Amino acid sequence: MQQRDLRSDSSANGGESARVGASGLYASVSESAARGADALSTIAADAMNSAGSELESLRSELNSLKDTVAKYVAQAGNETARTAHEITSNVTAQLGDVAGSIADKGGEVASIATKQVKTLGSELENMARRNPIGALAGALMVGVLIGMMGRRS
After folding, report:
1. For residue range 101-111, what is the model confidence (pLDDT) as tens digits?
2. How far apart are CA 132 and CA 136, in angstroms?
3. How far apart are CA 123 and CA 131, in angstroms?
4. How many domains, the chain?
5. Using one digit for the tens of pLDDT, what is the confidence trace for 108-134?
6. 138: exposed, middle or buried (C-beta count within 10 Å: 0-12, 13-18, 19+)?
7. Residues whose CB is less than 8 angstroms from the CB of residue 128 and which lie 6 or more positions away in sequence, other chains included
8. Could you tell me the pTM of the whole model?
9. Cβ atoms of 127 and 135 closer than 8 Å
10. Which residues contact 81 (CB under 8 A, 6 or more apart)?
């Protein structure tokens, strides 16, 4: 019986030590889980901070790129305006030269026409002096033709 009491005492101690071992294991697992959660929290916070700084850096680079593109577009607009002004100036100068050339040619044509009219006038005068009756007949014919054309209109 004494052995039996010892066994029951030892089994009671074994149950108690199993209970203490299980609660120690639970505490150890709980502690490990808490440390793991803290580590994950720290890693997540570091990742968020790093992502935030990377996002700010990216935002800054995009703003810089936007400014650079705006500067190039403005320069291209200025170049286009300057080129358009130069083309307009060149065309205006060329048109002025052409107009001057046409005026010169017109002046030459007018001078030649004046000379030809004077020559025709002097020829008609010479013909009328050589043959006055023919000149009167010619003038009569021209008058009749002009009169007929006036009636038809």
Report:
1. 888 888 888 88
2. 6
3. 12
4. 1
5. 888 888 888 889 888 888 888 898 888
6. middle
7. 135
8. 0.37
9. yes
10. none
